[in-house]
Automatic annotation (TrEMBL):
One Gene Ontology MF term: ATP binding
UniProt keyword terms in alphabetical order: ATP-binding, Nucleotide-binding
Keyword ATP-binding: yes
Superkingdom of origin organism: Bacteria
Protein name: ABC transporter ATP-binding protein
Pfam family, one: ABC_tran
Lineage: Bacteria, Bacillati, Bacillota, Clostridia, Lachnospirales
Family to which this protein belongs: Belongs to the ABC transporter superfamily. Ycf16 family.
Length: 246
């Protein structure tokens, strides 16, 4: 069951080519990991899949569950079941975390969201993530530490239950205990047959999951796809051996 299929994608930002003939296919239930040096285009890939208007698709296509979503707006993609956790989550003053998630949940759900049931589920999920309930009443990410922002992202993912979650360095900047909690949260999400595209430099989060494929991105090109053993190889030797493949 193919969930996401990207074919020959060329993506530009401000007239600069970032992703070059990029291809990937993610089936239902699979875990894919993208690794690559800084500036390789990893975040660009996440934003492009989500449909951020700044990223201009010059050629190629994105299909989700067989439907062409190349030209779709981000809200439509979210409704179809795609979720992106940002590398640098933004602060939103005036909107509480709880209201933000409830609004998003209402937007992506086909059924109405019942307030009491939503609150119960939210509090249970926050508890699992070691987040105080009080955070629900605080403005989104305002005054949150780096780790708290990342936890809030995972909370959104767990509450929205997308079919495909793209995690952009969600595990960076977390202390050891927070990495464990976040990893456990991601594992619980995965157990429900969802798919994951994980952008990471860390290995801790990957110890909690069975990784199906690892892709190496260099200069906007996918130069190598392999199994989980690539992670150890990169951590030991860096990316230099892959530069020959560009
Ligand atoms: P990564 O996430 O792998 O570190 P990015 O996708 O953030 O890489 O960036 C890929 C390339 O695109 C980099 O060369 C970066 O400088 C460039 N880039 C990213 N965002 C912008 C932007 N808004 N304007 C211009 N260049 C950008
Ligand atoms: Mg970067
Ligand atoms: Mg990035």
């Amino acid at each position: 069951n193919t969930l996401l299929e990207i074919q020959n994608l060329n993506v530009h930002i401000e007239e600069k080519e970032i992703l070059k003939s990029f291809n990937i296919k993610i089936n239902q239930g699979e875990v894919h990991v993208i690794m690559g040096p800084n500036g390789a285009g990893k975040s660009t890939l996440g934003y492009t899949i989500m449909g951020h208007p700044k990223y201009e698709i010059k050629s190629g296509s994105i299909h989700f569950e067989g439907e062409d979503i190349t030209e779709e707006k981000p809200d439509i993609r979210a409704k179809k079941g795609i979720f992106l956790s940002f590398q640098n989550p933004e602060e939103l003053s005036g909107v509480t975390l709880e209201n933000f998630i409830r609004t998003a949940k209402t937007a992506v759900s086909s059924k109405p969201v019942r307030i009491m049931a939503f609150k119960k589920e939210l509090h249970k999920t926050m508890d699992n993530l070691g987040m105080d309930k009080q955070y629900g009443d605080r403005y989104l990410n305002v005054g949150f530490s780096g780790g708290e922002k990342k936890k809030a992202e995972i909370l959104q993912m767990l509450m929205l239950e997308p079919k495909l979650a793209i995690l952009d360095e969600t595990d960076s900047g977390l202390d050891v205990d927070a990495v464990k909690i976040v990893s456990q949260g991601v594992k619980n999400f995965k157990d429900k047959k969802n798919s994951l595209l994980i952008i990471t430099h860390n290995t801790k989060i990957l110890e909690y999951l069975h990784v199906d494929y690892v892709h190496i991105l260099l200069g906007g090109k996918l130069v190598k796809t392999g199994d989980a053993s690539l992670i150890g190889q990169v951590n030991k030797n860096g990316y230099k051996e892959f530069f020959e493949l560009v």
